[in-house]
């Protein structure tokens, strides 16, 4: 069944801000959109001051005209609620709703995100504008999707937030004895005897309480979700047929557990802006897409469980809601994407399950804080390389609608837990270099370079379809998480656990008796001491590799050494171990290997598990992703090198409608999508000899 937002085509478009332009430009925009085959645009994200220029006084004439023009042009609209940027009058009328930093500084109006989501006045105003938009536009023929807010992630320490935090803690912990135990408040005389004494984790003399900081992150995730749900419910009540979403912003700073949110959106939508200029941008793109697909699957299961139903069959839907057309925003500058890179990034997302490619933004503005942000129509207009590539990408996407019937094939499960990442960032940890997202990225990068498809899972997700589970520094593990991991291995699954996984419980309290407490017996070892490394320090590993960030004193209790440390105080001690448990095997990694060593290790682990790369004969620098379903399979091939590449495959190239009789030739920087004939076997097969598949920088 085709939903309102999905008309059978892949979505293509992005943020459109007509309020920044005269009406004459609107007509030009629609004509250019049709030329580029744009079929979905997000409207109104930051338009609150234009929609409600004074309290209770609305101006919808311009929006009425824009929606009618878009509808007449065959372009659907994701209509946004503009609540990420309150208008000036609101901030003047409700200064108590402006955000307060951890050191007590109240911020002022003049940017976006100048609000506290725990402030009653803000929440009421947000509901008000959402309800007004719903009443007017819920049945407008152009509107295919509601887009609530923008990139939830703003936190606050104002009195409203503090009171809400206390209420949240009462609901979570029940009583002060439980709170005190969870936060270990006997340390440093922090024991609480009255809820009134509990505050948000403000700036303090030295190290804040790790349990308090972790719960504060969880509190903001739940508070922001509640703000979203209030708007979602108003919009859904106005027209239940219209789906509702919000766009996830990615980054370790974001206090949002996106996996938990996924059950509350009708469509997981993410914004992705890679920061690496070299081949790292392609690695980051693949990781972001795999994360989004994992959240979508997890959310669908959670929603089905809540309804008491079985999860729906077929691919879980998600959408790349924002990306940059022609720039990579890296440290200190904007790097101009090379020709063809916009298409490769977009199609990498589509290969991994996105229902299209969307951008911020349609037309580059002449003024404002983001006047030099990338756009599909740049300042120099449509007679440009960027717009020509925009038109070409639209032609490609129009040919790929059939791939949505296929689900991404993946043989490895890679675990990620938002709270574990938050806990690792506490300043009282043994190293300031610890970063849960970076550990996830390192493991994903190794698998990506080795050619293995992976699904990102949340602890507790079903693992029956995977032969290999990887835990990259998943720091927190209660009894349920430990049981989930153990059940996988006892059922014959294979496991790779990296350092600092399972070290603490769900509150961040360390499991006693030796590290990693939750998995010691399963791994057949005990870690006695940590040896954190300086930023410029390395340890040598047997086999010629190196380790960074971390090392450990490992004692074997049934495991066998696979690799050892060379030199220094750990000379000859195990660095990598393997422990056979029944039909399963559990590996342990006590340092962060260099990329080549990590790739070789994971290739060996995958081979032991009986897994094969997606396309074993793809040359180095060619990314391969397969989507498969009852009607067949489709192989995406993306050439990230500066020279032509030949890949063995048989089928039909969807971009050219020409047969690929055993081989497809990819031009430098080029892409092919092949409907395979016949459909290949599943990827659990014998693996050919290990090869170096690292893409060139």
From TrEMBL:
State the top-level EC class.
hydrolase
Q: Which InterPro entries match?
A: Beta_galactosidase_C (IPR013739), Beta_galactosidase_Trimer (IPR013738), Class_I_gatase-like (IPR029062), GH (IPR017853), Glyco_hydro_42 (IPR003476), Glyco_hydro_42_N (IPR013529), Glyco_hydro_b (IPR013780)
Q: Where in this chain does the record put each Beta-galactosidase C-terminal domain?
A: 621-676
| Catalysed transformations (reactions) | Hydrolysis of terminal non-reducing beta-D-galactose residues in beta-D-galactosides
Indicate the segments forming the Glycoside hydrolase family 42 N-terminal domain, all copies.
15-399
The record places domain Beta-galactosidase trimerisation at 410-611
* Protein name, entry field: Beta-galactosidase
């Amino acid at each position: 069944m085709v939903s309102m937002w999905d008309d059978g085509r892949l979505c293509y478009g992005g943020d459109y801000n007509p309020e920044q332009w005269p009406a004459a430009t609107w007509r030009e925009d629609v004509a250019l959109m049709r030329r580029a085959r744009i079929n979905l645009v997000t409207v109104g994200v930051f338009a609150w001051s234009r929609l409600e220029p004074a309290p209770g006084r609305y101006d919808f004439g311009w929006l009425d005209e824009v929606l009618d023009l878009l509808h007449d042009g065959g372009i659907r609209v994701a209509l946004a609620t503009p609540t990420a940027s309150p208008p000036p009058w609101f901030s003047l009328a409700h200064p108590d709703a402006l955000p307060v930093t951890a050191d007590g500084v109240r911020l002022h109006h003049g940017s976006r995100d100048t609000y506290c989501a725990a402030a009653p006045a803000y929440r009421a105003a947000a509901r008000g504008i959402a309800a007004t938009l719903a009443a007017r536009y819920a049945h407008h023929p152009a509107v295919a999707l509601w887009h609530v807010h923008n990139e939830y992630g703003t936190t606050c320490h104002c009195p409203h937030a503090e009171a809400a935090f206390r209420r949240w803690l009462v609901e979570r912990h029940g009583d002060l004895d439980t709170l005190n135990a969870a936060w270990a408040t006997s340390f440093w005389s922090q024991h609480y005897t009255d809820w009134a004494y509990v505050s948000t984790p403000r700036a303090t003399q030295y190290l804040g309480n790790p349990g308090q900081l972790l719960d504060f992150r969880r509190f903001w995730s739940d508070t922001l979700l509640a703000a979203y749900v209030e708007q979602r419910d108003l919009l859904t009540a106005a027209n239940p047929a219209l789906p509702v979403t919000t766009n996830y912003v990615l980054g370790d700073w974001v206090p949002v557990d996106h996996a938990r949110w996924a059950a509350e959106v009708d469509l997981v939508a993410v914004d992705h802006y890679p920061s690496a200029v070299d081949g790292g941008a392609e690695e980051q793109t693949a990781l972001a897409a795999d994360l989004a697909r994992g959240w979508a699957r997890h959310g669908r299961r959670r929603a089905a469980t809540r309804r008491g139903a079985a999860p729906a069959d077929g691919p879980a839907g998600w959408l790349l809601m924002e990306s940059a057309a022609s720039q990579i925003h890296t440290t200190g500058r904007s790097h101009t994407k090379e020709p063809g890179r916009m298409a490769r990034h977009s199609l990498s997302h589509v290969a991994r399950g996105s229902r299209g490619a969307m951008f911020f933004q349609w037309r580059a503005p002449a003024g404002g804080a983001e006047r030099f942000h990338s756009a599909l129509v740049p300042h120099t207009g449509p007679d440009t390389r960027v717009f020509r590539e925009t038109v070409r990408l639209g032609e490609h996407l129009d040919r790929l609608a059939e791939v949505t019937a296929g689900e991404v094939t993946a043989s490895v499960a890679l675990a990620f837990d938002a709270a574990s990442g938050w806990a690792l960032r506490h300043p009282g940890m043994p190293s300031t270099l610890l970063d849960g997202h970076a550990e996830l990225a390192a493991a994903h990068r190794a698998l990506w370079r080795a050619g293995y498809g992976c699904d990102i899972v949340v602890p507790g997700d079903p693992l029956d379809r995977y032969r290999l589970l990887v835990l990259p520094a998943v720091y927190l593990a209660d009894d349920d998480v430990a049981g989930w991991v153990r059940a996988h291995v006892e059922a014959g699954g294979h496991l790779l656990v990296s350092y600092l996984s399972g070290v603490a419980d769900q509150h961040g309290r360390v499991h006693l008796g030796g590290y990693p407490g939750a998995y010691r017996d399963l791994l057949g070892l005990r870690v006695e001491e940590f040896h954190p490394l300086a930023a410029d320090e390395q340890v040598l590993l047997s086999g010629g590799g190196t380790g960074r960030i971390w090392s450990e004193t490992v004692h074997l209790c049934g495991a066998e050494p696979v690799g050892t440390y060379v030199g220094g105080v750990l000379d000859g001690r195990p660095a990598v171990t393997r422990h056979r448990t029944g039909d399963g095997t559990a590996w342990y990694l006590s340092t962060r290997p260099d990329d080549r060593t990590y790739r070789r290790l994971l290739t060996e682990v995958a081979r032991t598990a009986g897994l094969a790369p997606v396309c074993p004969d793809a040359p180095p620098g060619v990314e391969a992703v397969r989507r498969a379903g009852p009607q067949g399979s489709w192989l995406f091939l993306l050439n990230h090198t500066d020279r032509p590449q030949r890949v063995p495959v048989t089928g039909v190239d969807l971009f050219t409608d020409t047969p690929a009789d055993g081989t497809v030739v990819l031009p430098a920087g080029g892409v092919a999508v092949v409907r395979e004939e016949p459909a290949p076997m599943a990827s659990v097969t014998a693996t050919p000899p290990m090869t170096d598949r690292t893409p060139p920088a």
